[in-house]
Amino acid sequence: MSNGNLVRAQFSEIASTIEILDAEGVTPEDFAYLRSAGPAVRSTVAKVIKRDETLWSLLEIVQDETKLGLVLAYVRGAADIVVKAAAPAVDKIIEKVEQVAKKFAVWIRTKVGGLTKAQIVEKLNDTDAGNGMVFKLSDYARNLLDKKECTVKEKAEEAEFATASLRELGFKETPTTKEFMNNEFLAKFDLELCRPDDGPSIRLAYRDQPNGEWLPIAMK
Length: 220
Fold this sequence. Notes:
By secondary structure, this protein is mostly helical. It has 10 helices and 4 strands.
C-alpha cells in the first residue's frame, strides 16, 4: 500500500530522475540493495529525499567537519547521496557524531614526577606491590630509564590516563604509528602522548593489574 503519490508520477518524471541518478553512477545493484534494506535505512532514505531538517543538518555537519578526516565528497543533493550509498552515509554520520562527542573516560589517576631515576628504580625493584605480589624491574626497562631521552619531572603533578583502542580512535585498518602516535591527531580526542616517566608512575599506581596483561604506552 502506498502512503504517497510517487507511484502516480508520470513516467517522464521518473525517467528524468533515473537519468540524474545514472549520471551520478547509481547502478541497478544500488536499487536492489535499497529494496532489500531494513526499515531504518529505508526510513533514512525517505527522510533525506523529503528534506528532513534534522538529518540534513547532520549531513552538513559531516561535510563541514573535515578536521577528523571524514570528507564526504559525495554528500551533494538528496537522492544521489542516499540511493547510491544509504547505509555507508548513515554509518559515517553516526561515526562522525560519536567521534565529535567522544571523551575517553579516565582509566587511572596518579601523581607523576618528583622522583629521580634512582628513586624510580628503587621503588620498582623487588618492592612489595600488595596482594602477595612484588614489583620486578627487567634489564630492558632499566636500560630505558638510563637513556638520556628518558627525562623525569622534577615536580610531582596529578595526571590522568585513558585507554583507547585503534577502533575507538576511528581506524578500521591497522595504521602506522605515525598516523596516531602524535599529539596533533590525539588532540582531536582531548588526549596527548605520554611522557617517559609516565610508564613507571602507572606501574606503581596500577597494583591490581592482571597477571600476563601488557599495556602498550603511546609516547615518543
